[in-house]
Amino acid sequence: MLVNITDTVGTNVMSQLITDHQRLLPRAKASIMGDCAFIPFKEVRLLPPVQPSVILCSGLNYKSHVEENPLASLLKVPRFFAKLPHTVIGPNDPIRHPGEEFQVDWEVELGVVFGKESYRINQHQAMDHIFGYTILHDVSSRFIQFMEANETIGKNFISFCPIGPCIVTKDEIEHPEKLRLSLKVNGVIKQDGSNEDWCFPLPRLIEWASMGISLKPGDIISTGTPQGTGYFRQPKEFLQPGDCCELEISQIGRLINTVIADRHPFQPVNDPKLNPLNHAI
User: pLDDT 10s per residue in the chain (281 long)?
Assistant: First the structure.
């Protein structure tokens, strides 16, 4: 059930709540402990819980994902790539599928939402800069991603970053390094793992990501994905129009999105040199 706290906190803009959360969150929590009216989910449409200006995704941060990749090895330092704001969609919004040849793949990830400006944060300070946690689906076009190292384009098709269904505030999750993640396609489990498989702990990721970038309240870093992506299955598996993706992280909830056809007329060049490389993020 939902509760409308707009009057209590004085805003209906999530970015304002996050920026001023130290003052406003106690008001919000006090209001829901009292006599308040609940709103059924069926009466609302859930939007993305936040509209970040920066989304940095950690690559190869699960040992199991490194192990399933024949050309990958453990990294010496964290690795990040960016997803752009236009990729963000919310719960139940459609993932737009450009065509079978694009090899559209899935990745369930824990998203970390920043609560205050974070620049050159050391590991001891890192957890103090977190507002909360959400689910992030790092949808990827593997063909484009690996064709001449086009990672930026392959990761950034419109709708390739579903986020939701909510943000759980930091105080509600004592051990974010011990959460269970799973992803189902049409009810079949494709990914199932724990954050205890991380290569780099969350404070190290935050330290590295903030080294040269100032992360603002509402910005997100994601923390990698466990084994089970479609690209490494034998035979390979990819999303198709009509598929339903159901992502779940313990203590956060479920993020559900359906795939729809949005075909792009582009035809990849029939050249062996442009075949995808056998590695993935």
Answer: 788 888 888 998 999 999 999 999 998 888 887 777 788 988 999 999 999 999 999 999 999 999 998 878 889 999 999 999 999 999 999 999 999 999 999 999 999 999 999 999 999 999 999 999 999 999 999 999 988 889 999 999 999 999 999 999 999 999 999 999 999 999 999 999 999 999 999 999 999 999 999 999 999 999 999 999 999 999 999 999 999 999 999 999 999 999 999 998 876 666 555 554 445 55
The whole-model pTM stands at 0.93
Structure tokens at 16: 């304002």
In angstroms, rounded to a whole number, what is the distance separating the alpha carbons of residues 212 and 82?
14
Residues in Cβ contact with 245 at an 8 Å cutoff, skipping those fewer than 6 apart: 95, 106, 137, 162, 183, 184, 185, 239, 256, 257, 258, 259
What CA–CA distance (Å, rounded) separates 20 from 16? Answer: 6
Q: Report how far residue 141's alpha carbon sits from residue 16's, in angstroms, rounded to the nearest whole number.
A: 34
Which amino acid is residue 180, in one-letter code?
A: R
Q: Which amino acid is at 74?
A: L
Instruction: Phi first, then psi: give them for residue 85, nearest 5 degrees.
Output: -55, -30
Indicate the pairing of strand 108-114 with strand 130-137. Answer: antiparallel
d(Cα 80, Cα 220) in Å, to the nearest integer?
Answer: 12
**Cα–Cα distance measured from residue 164 to residue 201, given in angstroms and rounded to the nearest whole number:** 22
Q: Do 50 and 18 contact (CB within 8 A), yes or no? A: yes
Domains of the chain: 1-44 (no CATH), 46-274 (3.90.850.10)
Alpha-carbon distance of 279 to 281, in angstroms, equals 7
Strand partners, 157: none
CA–CA distance, 160 with 239 (Å, rounded to integer): 12
